[in-house]
Amino acid sequence: TSLPDILGSNRAQNMIEGFKHAKAVEELCRKCSYKDRFIK
Fold first, then answer.
1. Model confidence pLDDT, tens digit, residues 1-40
2. Based on the number of CB atoms within 10 Å of its own CB, is 36 exposed (0-12), middle (13-18) or buried (19 or more)?
3. Which of 2, 27, 34, 40 has the fewest CB atoms within 10 Å, measured from its CB?
4. How far apart are CA 26 and CA 17, in angstroms?
5. Is the pTM above the cut of 0.85?
């Protein structure tokens, strides 16, 4: 699978939009506490 195909997938696009709005969209990301280090 090529990088453009991966980045163009619905899953990747949802993650990109989530990052833009500081929202974890993947299940693993929602459960992980690492992201809490960046909350100001």
1. 999 999 999 999 999 999 999 899 999 989 988 888 877 6
2. exposed
3. 40
4. 12
5. no
Q: How far is residue 29's CA from residue 1's CA, in Å, rounded to a whole number?
A: 23
| Tokens describing residue 37 | 């280090």
3-state secondary structure the chain: CCHHHHHCCHHHHHHHHHHHCCCCCCHHHHHCCHHHHHCC
33-9-7-37 Cα dihedral, nearest 10 degrees = -10
Domain extent, residue 21, equals 3-38
- What CA–CA distance (Å, rounded) separates 9 from 5? 6
